[in-house]
Structures are given as C-alpha cells and as structure tokens.
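Intended use. Records like the one below are meant for learning the mapping from a protein sequence to its folded structure. Do not use them to infer anything beyond what is encoded.
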Amino acid sequence: MSNGPDFIIIGAMKCATSTLHDQLAAQDGIFMTSPKEPNFFSDDDVFSRGESWYRDLFADAAVESLCGESSTHYSKLPTHDHTIERLVEMLGTDLRLVYMMRHPVDRLVSHYMHEWSQREITCPIDEAVSAHPELVDYGRYAYQLESWMNVFGQDAILPVFFERFVAEPQDELQRIATFLGLTSDVTWVEELKQRNASGERLRRSPVRDLLIDNPLARSVRRTLVPKSWRDRAKAIWTMQDRPTLSPDVQQEVCQRFDEDLATLGRWLNVGALSCETFKKTVREQAPAWVTVAEEIAS
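Structure written out for the chain above:
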C-alpha cells in the first residue's frame, strides 16, 4: 500500500483552506483528494474505516503527481488530541504541512457562523464564546502548531496567512507550490469560484433541505411559488448580518489571543504580533520561521 499524501493542509478552520485546496487541485502535477477533508486521523468514525480506505483516496493520482489532502480537524486541539500520533504511525514524518492562519477574531466569528448554520451552536455569539471554548482554542495558532513542530520540525511546516493569500494570490500560490516540491510554475485560476462563505449563514433544516435538493419539488416550487415568497421563506433560515462581539467580550478574547500571538510573532520574527497589529503585519511580507526549536522544546 504505497498510496498516500506528500503533503497535508492541516488548518486552520475558516482560513481559506478550501480555496487553497481547489487552486492546488487545478494545477498540473498536483492531485488533491475528494472529499477535500477526509479528517481520517482526527475523527474516530473515519479512522475506523482503516488504512486501505485512506490510501484509496489517492489511488487515481498519476505516479509523478504530488498528492495532498486538506483536513482542518488535524489542528483542533484539544478536541482531536490523537491526530499526530495516528498520522505518524501510518505515514511517518516525511511530509510537507501547510498551516493557514487568519485574524483570530475574524476566524472566531466565521467559525461561530458555521456552527450556527449546522445547529451545533444556537446561542448568541457572546454566550457562545464561554459555552464553546473551541471558538477561541482553534484560533490559538501557536498552541495548535507546537505539537506539530515538536514532531515534524519547523522546516516541514509552511505558515500562510489568509490576509496575504487574498491580497497576493498568485505569489502565495507559487510560494506554497514551491514549498510542496512542485518544480513547475502554477497559475491562479480566477474562474474557480471560492467556496461560498455566505452559505454558512443559511441554517441547516432537514425538511427544507430535502425539499430543496429534490428536483421535482424544486421545479414545482419555482413554478407555483412567487420569488418574493421564496426569498421571504429563505430569510427565516438565514443569518441576516455578520455577528459582532460586544466590546467587553472582544477585549477578553483579544487578551487571550494576544498571549498566543506574542509567541507566534517571536517564531516569525515579526515583533509584537497582536490582534491590533495582525492584519497590517501579515500582509507586508511572506512569513518564515526563525529558529524556534529550543524555545518549543523548553
């Protein structure tokens, strides 16, 4: 069983990993799995399908292609704390890893919206921050990266920031592809639609989704129900505005994020990285690690 990945996009959630996955899949010489997020090493129910199931995801790749997958569950501590152990046991440590980051408050809000749409979170966002600590934990990037660095070393992990990825898509895509070992140039494909973030504002409803996904019901609905009525019904299930944290909760989460960002800033040698300085700092230049092995080990 030789099929397997040469690289993995390990996170973070809501940081454009889907867009990166699609762009890489469009390049010659790169094979990306479908589904995009196998979550094999993190999720017990998927892991139970066995090694053959996972390796079969790469069975259609050309022999010379670089193979990759993208599973944001792999960097979701403390929820999935067996991921690295399982991964190393099966694949070893000869892998390239890509970790995407975003302003942690923006990431938190997008994460909340996603969970709201899935009905995993039903309370207002301020309450959710206390009730669902993962909203903060998954955006503590140094915390999530430390275990990966301890096992793989910093040179095996490429840091990518959402804000720079959006501002300089071609340059960042080329930087990522070069890191992965692709020797040819890549081209950003404008025609590829970004995964629709507005979809996360539409709340899951089993009955509605059954009707929407049924071709016959869709045809009848469009014929008999005026569009204005359809739009009004859709609004019932839709989050109308992007939620915002109250000033007090914003201050609280920023304090927690700033502690983590200070460590990340040292690792990247960019000075005092914080929620306040984050966007300007990460847009200015492509990030690169400085020597941090001794600090992590201590």
